[in-house]
Specification:
Layout (H helix, E strand, L loop, with lengths): L1 E14 L2 E17 L8 E5 L2 E5 L16 E12 L4 E2 L1
Parallel strand pairs: 1-5
Antiparallel strand pairs: 1-2, 3-4, 5-6
């Protein structure tokens, strides 16, 4: 399983349609990546006379991917900024 650790910064705003602060821009920074290793269940693709094997993570939905191809994203920190007030929350 590949594990990607990210930090997120959300820019918030309020508007007449939705007075509660809500994010309008989310920026993520990749902090760390732990590779899951080579695919344990490669898929064979045939095109004419050509036979190629590709990782199952490039072809199969998440539920059918091997444990090496599955990706888990961990949000380490989430920072909320409201640009009009300049206050971090």
């Amino acid at each position: 399983m590949s594990i990607h650790t990210v930090d997120a910064v959300q820019l918030l705003h309020t508007c007449p349609a939705e007075p509660e602060p809500h994010p309008y821009d989310i920026r993520r920074t990749v902090i760390d990546v732990i590779d899951g290793g080579p695919c344990r269940n490669p898929i064979t693709i045939r095109c004419g006379d050509t036979v190629t094997q590709i990782p199952c993570g490039r072809h199969e939905p998440t539920t059918r991917q091997c444990s090496a191809c599955r990706i888990v994203v961990i949000e380490r920190t989430i920072t909320n900024l409201h640009p009009t007030t300049g206050v971090a929350g």
